[in-house]
Amino acid sequence: MLKPRFQVLARHAAGLRTRGLTTINTSRPLRKVVTTLLLGGTSAAVAAYFLLPDISRGAPTCDNIPLSPSHFTPAKLTSSTIVSSGTKILTVAIPPELLPKGSDLFSPIWSVFIKDDDIQVERPYTPLDGVDEDGNMRFWIKRYQHGEVSRWLYSKQVGDTIEIRGPLRTWSWKDDAWDEIILISGGTGITPFYQLLRTVFSGKSSFQGRITLLHSSRTPSELPPRDILDPLLKFAQHNPEKFRLKFFVDSFDETNGQSSTHIEVHKGRIGKNSICGALHSASRVPWWRGLFSQDSDVSDRKILFLVCGPEQMVEAIAGPYGRNYSQGPVGGVLRSLGCNSRQVWKL
Ligand SMILES: Cc1cc2nc3c(=O)[nH]c(=O)nc-3n(C[C@H](O)[C@H](O)[C@H](O)COP(=O)(O)OP(=O)(O)OC[C@H]3O[C@@H](n4cnc5c(N)ncnc54)[C@H](O)[C@@H]3O)c2cc1C
């Protein structure tokens, strides 16, 4: 997850167009070669422009028809709270009369595109609690040092207008499709899982299986804020048979160590041991079986692995994305556990 897939492609196409224009003034001997390249480049750029799946380019802004993926809706930033270094919880509201009708539209997991008005670039963000009847959406956002949209969004003040379009389906939840679900997240990759867990454990779901969340951050101070952790801990407390969660950090903060957080945190990356340990079958099948066997008991069970986080993490756990950020084959740790492509989804 957490990569601006369509925009990278769109910007690439824009880059092609720009390069084509800047090569026009050149010397005569080079002109023929340049013309050929220019024609080729321009054709590629034009083709890319029309074929790439980015409908934001022409998406208008409308303030009098319901929120939809096909246009931007102006929303107000109604609250903004710094919750840790470089992260904020934002609440964004659209007028309630602009909420689209349709009960399935806002079933998990969905996101909205937020547009950086200054540079006309959009990125997807996940409303933590979905949207309420007053049109409020709450986001946990992280500012990346060189990030275009995240820095812009982080700098917004209460009262500012932010344009959004959506809802866009990230992945479709079904109550009865799986016996066991393992959610693996890194950084802000926890946001879609929070949205899902909140629905499942707030009495709106008839799910009877088990869910385990394995989350990792670089240090304890970069773990999700209490606004996210506390409800998750409560879900686990109230549903011990159905929901477990485990947190990992690459290293402990220099000054505070483990004591900087109110939850139990394990040092190290999420890997084969932790994933095997999370499987419910681990109580019946020795954990070491997964370490040595390509074909564990995973492939013939109704187990689903959802993975969401920085690209390197997704790759290590579930294999790289395919071309144009399609799912690609199952790789990494999950492949070595014998998982097939129906059991793994990279968000
Ligand atoms: C479906 C979906 C839902 C998302 N939901 C959320 C959400 O709720 N909250 C949230 O904060 N983000 C979320 N994201 C990520 C978000 O869309 C942006 O990718 C992120 O804010 C960075 O955008 P940017 O324009 O600032 O960075 P860019 O300009 O695209 O990237 C600049 C640099 O920032 C760094 N960078 C960017 N993203 C990451 C990353 N994920 N991990 C490590 N380094 C990175 C890289 O070094 C990169 O070179 C979601 C992504 C997806 C696909």
- The domain tally reads 3
Order of helices and strands: HHEEEEEHEEHEHEEHHEHHE
Largest sheet: 6 strands, antiparallel
Gyration radius over CA: 22 Å
How would you describe this structure to a colleague?
Belongs to the flavoprotein pyridine nucleotide cytochrome reductase family. GO terms for molecular function: oxidoreductase activity. InterPro entries: CBR-like, Cbr1-like_FAD-bd_dom, FAD-bd_FR_type, FNR_nucleotide-bd, OxRdtase_FAD/NAD-bd, Riboflavin_synthase-like_b-brl. Keywords: FAD, Flavoprotein, Oxidoreductase. This is FAD-binding FR-type domain-containing protein. The protein is an alpha/beta fold. The chain folds into 3 domains: 47 residues; 97 residues, Translation factors (Elongation Factor Tu (Ef-tu), domain 3, Beta Barrel); 167 residues, 3-Layer(aba) Sandwich (Rossmann fold). Helices cover 29% and strands 23% of the residues. It has a 6-stranded antiparallel sheet with strand order 4-3-6-1-2-5, covered by helices on one side. Strands 10-9-8-7-11-12 form a 6-stranded parallel sheet, with helices on both faces. Strand 7, helix 4 and strand 8 form a beta-alpha-beta unit. Helix 1 packs antiparallel against helix 2. The longest helix is centred in the N-terminal third of the chain and has 24 residues. The site of flavin-adenine dinucleotide has 25 residues, from strand 4, strand 5 and helix 3.
